[in-house]
Design brief:
The chain has helices at about 20-50, 55-70, 75-85, 90-105, 115-120, 135-165; strands at about 5-10, 15. It is mainly alpha-helical and about 170 residues long. Strand 1 (about 5-10) and strand 2 form a beta hairpin.
Length: about 170
């Protein structure tokens, strides 16, 4: 059992060290992973300052919604997560981050009736034939809200990084 601390595998008696695995993983995505972890830390620090806390009820509601959507595709949550190489804990963490960001940035997101009408007119060919604005209004509002949230998130994270003291001790290729 303690061998696994140093050796990841044996290939015809030759060891593949954990260090070699870690180095290969760092080359493949170390920079992206570190950036994700830095952003995650900044989000939760800002949430603490803003008094934002995402409850288990909010997370469970989102998971239930995902499960319902997957049922329509004849999939279980476990199957979908396994296909993505994720665990339920990974999903919970992603939802917590998403809902935290939404709570912090939601007051900066406003969707006007004009924007909804404009989107409807410009994208009629993408909508179901004969669709009426009233029938798709909330879907459009959701799409526009998500677009604005994504744009606001990028700007917000860059601002957080700029005003934070982040010391990097590792540089990745």
């Amino acid at each position: 059992m303690s061998k696994s601390l140093f050796v990841a595998a044996l290939v015809n008696g030759w060891p593949v060290s954990r260090i070699a695995v870690i180095k290969a993983l760092e080359k493949q995505g170390g920079s992206d992973v570190l950036n994700t972890l830095v952003e995650r830390s900044l989000i939760f620090q800002e949430a603490g300052r803003a008094g934002v806390k995402v409850t288990d009820d909010v997370i469970n509601t989102q998971i239930t919604s995902i499960e319902e959507m997957l049922k329509g595709q004849n999939l279980t949550l476990e199957e979908a997560l396994a296909a993505r190489g994720q665990t339920k804990e990974d999903l919970i963490d992603q939802i917590r981050i998403q809902k935290t960001v939404e709570a912090i940035l939601s007051q900066k997101i406003n969707i006007s009736e004009e924007e909804i009408s404009k989107y409807f007119e410009e994208n009629k060919e993408l909508l179901q034939e004969g669709a009426k604005l009233e029938d798709v209004k909330e879907d459009i509002r959701g799409q526009l809200s998500q677009q604005k949230l994504n744009a606001e998130y990028t700007k917000w994270v860059e601002e957080l990084k700029a005003k934070s003291k982040i010391l990097y001790f590792v540089k990745f290729p």
